[in-house]
Write a structure and sequence with these properties.
Arc Repressor Mutant, subunit A, five-stranded antiparallel beta sheet, 48% helix
Length: 196
C-alpha cells in the first residue's frame, strides 16, 4: 500500500492544479509544503498572502496574526475560516486540518476566489446550453455584479439589447430572474484554463 501512495503523489498534485481554488499545504509552523497553480498565482501577486523564506504569511500584520492562530488551531484539529484584508480588498481562507490526530500535522489553506465563477466555466456552460458569445459576455458581467444598466454602459450597447440577452439567457437556462442566473453559475465546477 505504501508504494501506491508514493506513486500517486504526482497524480494528486496534478489533480490539485486542475482546481480553480488556491490550495496551500503547510505545516503547523506555516512552512510551505505545496501550492497548486491557482495558489501560486495568488502568492506571486502578494495581495493578501505570500511566501517569505519558505513560510506562508499574510501581507497585513493583523491578518498574519489571525492566519497563524488559525493554522495553529488547525494543527490541533480545529477548522477555521478567516478573512484577510489588504488594500481595500479581502480574501476568504478556509483553514483545514489534514491530520485527524491533531498532533501538529499538515494544514490545508483553501483560498477563496475573487469572482463567483471563472470565465472558462461560464464558457463551457454556455457551449452546453447553446448560449451565444454575446449572451455569455452579459452573463459574465452579471456574475461580476454589474447591473443591466452598467453592462450597457461598459459594453457600449443599448440597454434593450442587454435585456434581450438576459431574456435569452433566462429562456435557455430555465431560470426566472438575474439572481437565478448568477446562482446557476456559482455552482459550476471550478475549472482552470489549460494554459495557466
Amino acid at each position: 500500500m505504501q508504494d501506491t501512495a508514493v506513486n500517486s503523489a504526482p497524480i494528486l498534485k496534478s489533480v490539485l492544479d486542475q482546481l480553480d481554488y488556491g490550495i496551500v499545504l503547510c505545516d503547523a509552523d506555516m512552512r510551505l509544503q505545496h501550492a497548486n497553480r491557482a495558489a501560486q498565482r495568488e502568492l506571486a501577486l502578494e495581495r493578501h498572502v505570500a511566501v517569505r523564506g519558505g513560510v506562508v504569511r499574510a501581507i497585513a500584520g493583523a491578518c498574519d496574526r489571525a492566519l497563524r492562530l488559525a493554522v495553529r488551531n488547525a494543527a490541533r484539529g480545529r477548522r477555521g475560516l478567516i478573512r484577510l484584508e489588504a488594500a481595500g480588498a479581502s480574501l476568504g481562507v478556509a483553514v483545514v486540518p489534514l491530520d485527524s490526530g491533531g498532533d501538529g500535522g499538515a494544514v490545508m489553506l483553501v483560498l477563496g476566489r475573487s469572482r463567483p465563477c471563472e470565465s472558462l466555466s461560464i464558457d463551457l456552460f454556455a457551449r452546453q446550453a447553446g448560449i451565444t458569445a454575446a449572451e455569455a459576455s452579459v452573463l459574465r458581467s452579471l456574475c461580476d455584479g454589474l447591473s443591466p444598466q452598467e453592462i450597457s454602459e461598459a459594453c457600449g450597447i443599448a440597454i434593450c439589447t442587454v435585456r434581450t440577452h438576459i431574456s435569452a439567457l433566462r429562456q435557455k437556462t430555465g431560470v426566472r430572474n438575474i439572481s437565478g442566473l448568477v446562482r446557476l453559475t456559482t455552482v459550476l465546477p471550478p475549472v482552470v484554463p489549460v494554459l495557466c
